Amino acid sequence: MSRNFGKLLLSLSLTLLLAAVGAVAVVAPASADQAIRLQYRTSAPGATTAQAEPWLRLFNDGTTTIPLNQVKIRYYLTGTETYRFACSWAVVSCSTVTGTFVRQEGSGQYLEVGFTSGSLAPGQNTSDMQLRFYRADWQTFTQSDDYSYGPQTAYSDWEKITVYVGGELAWGEPTGSDPDPTDPPTNPPGGSGVLFDDFTYSGPTDPLLGQRGWTVRSSSGGPGVPGATWSPSAVSFPGGLLTLDSSTNGTAAGTVQTELSTTARKFHEGTYAARVRFSDAPTSGPDGEHVVQTFFTITPLAYNLDPNYGELDFEYLPNGGWGEPSNILYATSWETYQGEPWQAVNTHTAERTSFAGWHDLVIQVSGGRMKYYVDGRLFADHGDIYYPETPMWIMFNQWFIDLQGATGTRTYRQQVDYVYHSKNEVVAPADVLGRVAALRAAGTSFTDTVPSP
Question: Could you tell me the pTM of the whole model?
Answer without folding.
Answer: 0.62
